[in-house]
Design goal:
With 342 residues, the protein is α+β, with helices and mostly antiparallel strands. It has 6 helices and 17 strands. It has a domain of 236 residues: Alpha-Beta Complex (Inorganic Pyrophosphatase), CATH 3.90.80. Strand 11 and strand 12 form a beta hairpin.
């Protein structure tokens, strides 16, 4: 549009001023505008990219059906695995971690990264042929934090953890995020690690990493478990209680903990995370270490024997089932269970 105005102005003014005298003015003005416009456009794109999320989710299948699956794409539009393609570390210093939110705070649906499904979408756990919901144990409602996993980690079931004496549970390492914001399923949060609790679940080590969203107002004040007690009084005690009793309404015994249920330090937690990251690197890069229980397809780990092309990843999403038999969510899901510990 500017070029059209410039040409019209050029014709009009050249009649008055003469072609030779006006030509340099017109040429400089158009070039200057073009450069300025490009600079402004680039700045605008940069600002837009800063605001764009790095990942998005795509739901397939009907909610409350076994077909429901939440797939992930990166900001280039490529379908990815949240377990294998999202980096563990969110900064070069390796002090901030990416967390994939599976279960938002105060919800009951037991959602988790599906280990057996190619590209590992989030799906609802199924127990005895029914969708699984976690019981409400008084005074709690559903999960009492945002719950999820650290990508690119694996609790190796062939490794006996020296500090607990138990093998790994064959899952990515779990995270509880204690910030004020209720996250959304599929959110990828940047978190600071504060500590860890070691749940012993049916003879397996099931680490629960305690973390906080780096954008939380209290994030700069909490750096270790002692700070959690100071700024979130009662939360660590409530967390241990929650994990002890949450399976009791389903007829299972009280869960047990290593270290008498005491939370370990941030330094201890980061060492455990680093170890599980090394286990994952072995899992993703060596087929003889892999297990049929874990789908390892990915698009970003070029040394992996399981890496696939972007087109194949897109095909997996396209072929994921839609619809599905929707289960009625009975009102007993909202029942409050009053548990008395021995």
């Amino acid at each position: 549009m500017f070029a059209e105005i410039t040409r019209s102005s050029y014709i009009a003014f050249s009649r008055v001023l003469g072609r030779r005298s006006f030509r340099p003015i017109c040429a400089v003005s158009e070039v200057t505008f073009s450069r300025s416009y490009r600079q402004l456009h680039i700045q605008s794109l940069r600002k837009t990219n800063l605001k764009m999320p790095l990942y998005e989710t795509i739901a397939k299948g009907a909610i409350n059906s076994p077909n429901y699956s939440l797939y992930f794409k990166n900001n280039c539009g490529n379908v990815i695995s949240p377990m294998h393609d999202i980096p563990l570390y969110a900064n070069e210093e390796k002090t901030i971690y990416n967390m994939v939110v599976e279960v938002p705070r105060w919800t009951n649906a037991k959602m988790e990264i599906s280990l057996k499904t190619p590209l590992n979408p989030i799906k609802q756990d199924i127990k005895k042929g029914k969708l699984r919901f976690v019981a409400n144990c008084f005074p709690h409602k559903g999960y009492i934090w945002n719950y999820g996993a650290l990508p690119q980690t694996w609790e190796n079931p062939n490794h006996i953890e020296p500090s607990t004496g138990c093998k790994g549970d064959n899952d990515p390492i779990d995270v509880i995020e204690i910030g004020y914001r209720v996250a959304k399923r599929g959110d990828v949060l940047q978190v600071k690690v504060l500590g860890a609790i070691a749940l012993i679940d049916e003879g397996e080590t099931d680490w629960k990493i305690i973390a906080i969203n780096v954008n939380d107002p209290l994030a700069s004040k909490v750096n270790d478990v002692s700070d959690v007690d100071q700024y979130f009084p009662g939360l660590l005690r409530a967390t241990v209680e929650w994990f002890k009793i949450y399976k009791i309404p389903d007829g299972k015994p009280e869960n047990q903990f290593a270290f008498n249920g005491d939370a370990k330090s941030a330094d201890f937690a980061t060492s455990i995370i680093a170890e599980t990251h090394k286990f994952w690197q072995t899992l993703i890069n060596q087929s003889n270490v892999g297990t049929p229980e874990i789908a390892c397809q990915n698009i970003t780990n070029r040394h992996s024997e399981f890496v696939i092309g972007k087109e194949e990843a897109a095909k997996i999403l396209d072929e994921a089932p839609d619809g599905g038999e929707v289960e009625e969510v009975v009102d007993t899901v909202d029942t409050w269970h009053f548990i008395h510990l021995k």
